[in-house]
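Sequence in, structure out. Go.
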Amino acid sequence: MRFPFRCCLIGIFGSCFILSIQGQTAAQQIEQVEQVNRLRDLRRSLLDVPETMNKAPLISEEELEDVGPQYLLRFKPKREWFEALFDVQYYYTSNFNLNEEKSERNPIGEIDTGVLVSTAQFAFAPSPFRVWDGWLSPRVGYRHQWYNYGLDNTDNQLNNFDFDVQTVFGEVSYQFLENWNARIGLSWSRLLNHEDVGNREDYSEFYKEFVPEWEIQRYIKINPNSLFVIGYEGNYHHTEVDPFPNAYINDRMDHILTLTYLHQLTSHIILQPYYRFTYTDFWENGDRNDFLHSLGLVASYHFNKWSSIRLFCNYDKRESDDPFIPDYEKIDAGGGATLVFRF
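Output:
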């Protein structure tokens, strides 16, 4: 017997914020893939490139005195305007419902399961162009994600929680002073459940949010194969759910500090350990403040500039000053593959 999605959701979690957190987790994985691709593109300007690489060989010793050093011409690459990204990842999560350990006070406890997340993203994303002393990169697009739970043959009916995320986004990034990058963006998302209605699935909206966001990153060169990235991101989630108990109960402000180390182990393999601290202030849910610590590692293999695979694992620990909100720990581990086409 399949129970109605909305009844399960309210009965177990009390709100759909839990699913938006799952959506953010996958979106962060996509952002990590995109960050690796961006840093690989920026690597030549951020890391030392010997000057002799661009010098033409001398024909004679007298040439240097007569005309000075000569350099090879660099051909201007073909300008690109659009981007298509396809990503699939499957991972195990030890705590799907972001709950505390099972106890008399908490009879449900933690639920582990497998999660399949599929992503298709299309964007108008012209190649960076020169503005003042930096490079401007605009992007406007649409992203669709499919979440499927319980594919590991568990009997806990987690397929009742399958949902889709539709997102329209726009952002502008600006790289300046060679190793700084700033970004501002706007996105609108809605979550659609998968309820059985007769002999078909009904995709009905149960959550939506509008998110302005801003970010600043500093790239620090460690050696020719390593970069350290310090980043701050802020965003405000203006949300809306069914008006029970409060249509805007999930409205919140996030402040995120990220420390990332990227090491190019070989020409194809990049290791990416990271630490992320998130402070969340809920505006419409009393005086609630959450503190989330995330520690993880991504190992990616890049076949070429448009295809890659990855393995990842991360550990999350959340603490809340609201006594009715569970403090939790969880571990996610899995793999994924990405195709990125620019044309």
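Check: The chain has three helices and 15 strands. The CA atoms of residues 250 and 328 lie 18 Å apart.
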